[in-house]
Amino acid sequence: MRSHARRGFTLIELLVVIAIIAILIGLLLPAVQKVREAAARIKCSNNLKQIALANANYESAYGTFFPGVSRTGCCWGTWMIQSLPYMEQEPMYRLFQNFGGNDSTGIRYAAAPNSTNVTTQKLATYLCPSDPGPTVWNGGTLTMHNYVLNGGNTSFYQSNLPFGCTGGSTVGANGCVTFGGAPFGFYEDPAAQAAGGDASPTDYTAGSPTNGRMGQPRKVTDISDGTSNTLCVSEVLRSPTKGDDIRGFTWWGGASGFTTYQTPNNAAATDVMTGGGCGSPPGTPPIYPCTTTSTSTLARMQLVRSKHTNGINAALCDGSVRFITNSISLVTWRSLGTSQGGETLGSNF
Prior knowledge:
The chain is an alpha/beta fold. The chain has one domain (13-337). Helix content is 23%, strand content 10%. It is built from 6 helices and 9 strands. The protein has a 5-stranded mixed sheet, with helices on one face. Strands 1-2 form a two-stranded antiparallel sheet. It has a two-stranded parallel ribbon with strand order 6-7. Strand 8 and strand 9 (321-325) form a beta hairpin.
C-alpha cells in the first residue's frame, strides 16, 4: 500500500505567514494606541469635570471659588488643599497644617507632617493618564500632578502686560494685554509688580499672617463674561526630568495655575517659574521653554500643555468640559481666560 506522509510547511510558506502576521500587527498597533489615547483623554476630561464641580460645591458652601493660592503665597497651601474635601479626601484635608500661614506661624508644605501625610500622596483624580512624566518631583517623595486653575489672560501678577501699559485690550491690541479679570486669585501683590516682576510677593515668608494679599477668592457674580465663557481648570505636563523643574508640582503656588497669554502646547512659548526652577540634569536644557526670571514684559506665568493629540482638555466655570485644539486663535484663547473682558468668542471654540 502507498503511504501518505504528512507534508510540512516550506520555508517560503512560513516566511509568507510571518510577513502577513507582521503586517496585521502593524495595522493593529496604531488602532490600539488610538483607543488607549481616547480612553486616557476621556479619563482626563472626567477628572477636570470633577475638579470644576468641586469648585462649584465649594462656592455653594463658602460663597466664593477656590483661592488659587493661600493668602501668603508659595508654600502654605494652594487650591489643591481646599479642593480635597470635595474630592472625597476629607481626612487628608484635615491633616494639612498652616494653610495661609507663613514661616512664623508654622511649617510649609515640604515639612512633616504635611509632607508625610499630604504632599507625598499621588491622587489619581489629579493625574492625566496621557502624561508619562514622573509623579514625584526631582526624584524625591513630593508628588506632582497635572491640573491647574485659570489665573487670567496675562500673568500670575494679574495686571496689564507689559506692566503699566495702557491703550491695549484683553486680547493684546497695540501690544498691550490688559488684564480682564480671572476666576481665581494668585500673586496679585502690588509690591511685587512694582519691583518689576522679578520678585516674590513681599509677605512671601516670615511676618504677620494678616499681611497676606495673594489668592483673593472670587465670587461667581464677579464672572460677568458668564461661567460658560470662562475657563476654570486645564492641564500642564509634569516635568519629565529629575532636575529641579517645578512644573507639575501643584502643591507649590507658582505651579498651581495657568494663564492664557500664549496658546496651548505652543512649542515656542515660555513658562516663567519665578521662585521655582526650570532645571533639567546638568548641561541639558528644559524640554519645554522655561525661565526663572520674571520681567515687566514677560512676567510670572505657566502655560497649558498636554500629551493629547492636537490639543488639550479644559473645564469651564459652568462645569462643562471641552477639548480645545492647538490651532485655537490667540484672540479666542485670551478671551477664554478672562472673567470680565466682555469679548465675543471666535468661531473656532
